[in-house]
TrEMBL record:
SUPFAM superfamilies: L domain-like
Keyword Chloroplast carried by entry: no
Protein name as annotated: Centrosomal protein 97
Keywords of this entry: Leucine-rich repeat, Repeat
Length: 117
């Protein structure tokens, strides 16, 4: 499939494809450091464990309500999640390399977990 072929690239851009979720068969190569899923209809971040080398993840303008899937991305440096429906900040505790976080345009109810960063 086109998605499987693009996953071998350093930057995989799957923006504006009307995706509701990341396909369970999706995997990233060790060379893939950036995954862009902007302008889709994604509600949940599943299957990110198949992209352990990701350094940048962008899921802007989707329908995310939770961000738990990011906790498995231990190499993540940039996390871009603006304009979703995220209510709670979660999954960031183990992201020791994270240097840039964008949660603007969400519905954050609890901010206390940001003090751990």
């Amino acid at each position: 499939s086109a998605v499987a072929r693009t996953a071998k690239l350093p930057v995989v851009d799957l923006s504006a494809r009307s995706m509701q979720k990341l396909d369970p068969s999706f995997t990233c190569s060790e060379d893939t450091h950036t995954l862009i899923l902007d302008r889709n209809n994604i509600m949940k971040l599943d299957h990110l464990e198949r992209c352990p080398s990701l350094q940048q993840l962008s899921v802007a303008n989707n329908r995310l309500v939770r961000m738990m899937g990011v906790s498995q991305l231990r190499e993540l440096r940039v996390l871009n999640l603006p304009n979703n429906s995220i209510g709670y900040i979660e999954g960031l505790r183990d992201l020791s390399h994270l240097t840039w976080l964008n949660l603007s345009g969400n519905n954050i109810k609890v901010w206390k977990y940001l003090t751990m960063l």
